[in-house]
Amino acid sequence: MKEGSVTYTIEDGLGIVEFYHEAGNSLPGQLLDSLAKSILEAGKDDAVRLILLKSSGNRTFCGGASFYELVSISDFISGKEFFMGFAKVINAIRTCGKIVIGRIQGKAVGGGVGLAAACDYAMASKYASIRLSELAVGIGPFVIGPAVERKMGFSAFSQLALNPDEWQTAEWAKQKGLFTESFETVEQLDAYIDHFIKSLMAKSPKALSELKKVFWEGTDHWDQLLERRAEISGNLILSEEAKSAIQSFLNA
């Protein structure tokens, strides 16, 4: 479990993709790869009508990129490949053909905000504060930027990107459109997700499929766009400034 895990299960037509990492549900490369593959597998599975993306635990949804992996990157190819992991997950959600519901039970940092933004419908608890921390470590939220901007708007995205040290509340994120609901407790969140999924399951699969297409209209270029963004991050992560900042976080 030290390397984390991704599980894919099916319950009554619901494809559940769940990830875990002991370091705050952070995402090293192998988990990103497994996430993308599991989402695409659920998209192709005829037994699945909806997809639920979630993480283990109650207080942290996703800690973003694995700092331990980031600090070990020593060349551009490896850097681009790592950030392409986030691109692949976002594009998997975009192209899987099925509605993806996000359960954001706790804090989301960096790439975790990107995952929440990529979901078609994300619900949160009041503990789901958000922060784009990338600028604080010498890089930027380049790969996840299109997903965050698409969901929250340019103003909210720029506010998050340029203020990497300050948390924004789940209520703020709801007001900006990242979350559709924000609940007082995780138990209330789970109860509503269960209710919402049951309601959506009763709807026409074909209609949901067509809605998915409509939701993502105008994003056909994202394969190329996110790859270009991964190249930007792949270059920046090699700088001494980035290495020093990440190491400082690890030593704290």
Number of strands: 9
N→C terminal distance: 24 Å
| Averaged pLDDT | 96
**Main sheet overview:** 6 strands, mixed
Task: Quickly name the level 1 CATH class.
Answer: Alpha Beta
SS-derived structural category: alpha/beta
- SSE pattern, N- to C-terminal: EEHEEHHEEHEEHHHEHHHH
What is the overall silhouette? Answer: globular
Q: What radius of gyration results from the CA coordinates? A: 17 Å
Report strand %: 15-25%
Q: Considering DSSP H and I runs of 4 or more, what fraction of the residues is helical?
A: 40-55%
Low-confidence stretches: none
Overview of the molecule:
- This protein is of the alpha/beta class and 252 residues long.
- The protein has one domain: 2-enoyl-CoA Hydratase, Chain A, domain 1 (Alpha-Beta Complex), CATH 3.90.226.
- 49% of the residues lie in helices and 16% in strands.
- It is built from 11 helices and 9 strands.
- It has a 6-stranded mixed sheet with strand order 1-2-3-5-7-9, with helices on both faces. Strands 4-6-8 form a 3-stranded parallel sheet.
- Strand 1 (5-11) and strand 2 (14-20) form a beta hairpin.
- Helix 1 (29-44) packs parallel to helix 3 (76-95).
- The longest helix is centred in the middle third of the chain and has 20 residues, at 76-95.
- The protein is globular.
- The relative contact order is 0.15.
- The model has no long low-confidence stretch (mean pLDDT 96).
